[in-house]
Amino acid sequence: MKKKKIAVLASGRGSNLQVIMDAIDAGYIETGEIRVVISDNRDAFALERARRNGIEHLWIDPSVYDTRREYDHAVAGELEKRQTDLVVLAGFMRILSPDFVRRFYGRIINIHPSLIPSFCGEGYYGGRVHRAVLDYGVRVSGATVHFVDEGTDTGPIILQQVVEVKQDDTVESLAERVLEVEHRLLPEAVKLFCQDRLRIEGRKVYISGDGAR
Amino acid sequence: MKKKKIAVLASGRGSNLQVIMDAIDAGYIETGEIRVVISDNRDAFALERARRNGIEHLWIDPSVYDTRREYDHAVAGELEKRQTDLVVLAGFMRILSPDFVRRFYGRIINIHPSLIPSFCGEGYYGGRVHRAVLDYGVRVSGATVHFVDEGTDTGPIILQQVVEVKQDDTVESLAERVLEVEHRLLPEAVKLFCQDRLRIEGRKVYISGDGAR
What we know:
The structure is a homodimer.
Chain A: E1 4-9, H1 15-25, E2 32-39, H2 45-52, E3 56-59, H3 68-81, E4 86-89, H4 98-103, E5 108-112, H5 127-136, E6 140-147, E7 157-164, H6 171-194, E8 198-201, E9 204-207
């Protein structure tokens, strides 16, 4: 099987990028390779991680572009030049324009640190998600990997896994356990995509050969 | 420990009532007894179950009362006459008035067939919950036992348990697996209440001696 070309978009330290690089190095993802890492933030450690692994990395400066749409157009151009099969949002702190999403629909995946549709949407990111989970008093939370559509955290769900919320959890302790799950789910979703095992039908994602997971 | 007096409100076949009766008979709930079963539906099989188990049962006819508030007032009167400690909603198909909820706040529990706050609130009951779960395409659902407040399915959460959603699930197959979980969670919540192990603080429910669960 021909290897899928993966682009990773990241704004921060890039721990999810690292997890994907590790999964490829370990042979867990056999049919994918990271072609490029793109960041909107010059100081993103994700860029440094790419450099250390000999992966092409681009800082595309948002201040050069007048609108989000123009910025996204520039990013899309770089992705298409490299014949990108899969775009992974790994802590990319910019909301993608509808044009961008339509252009790559079914090829962009994101991970969210809750059980969508709970505690997601506008304003729910990072520690705010876990704060809301704790304030609500739910007993379970988790992580969700999904295809990106034009809404915020509303796209078809690929994988979800549950994390128990403990009575004495803090934002930090809960975030830590959810992050462990994120680091398991994201490589799994990338692997499934790279094996051509994901099929979107309306809002649903069917996984073929699911027994083999 | 003095036994808690439990009232069960049910409109239908009363499978959750049966589960509580069984848990008491089996000695799983040692510090509670069902004092009365009340239904708004003369033909509710829940009333027949109560009769067979020698439990007092009342059909209180809603058509006799002009408003929901007056009906609830009548029900509340019967509950207080019997010094009810805990009101369990077991498939009770009427929304309780704010007056009723305030009068018994912290002493009314309900079970909902999803992971609140997903797939709950107005219009989400019975098979509609599972239909919405399947249409959304989530990978996990479950059941939630909570204290009842003035909102719909918004009260403090006592217990939640997860059920995996399978790719080939139908409303019926999912409902069946969630029901199994409901039948485990509800007696557990009743047991914890009857052992005085639940404490509400704002939106959160703390379970004392949680290690012993």
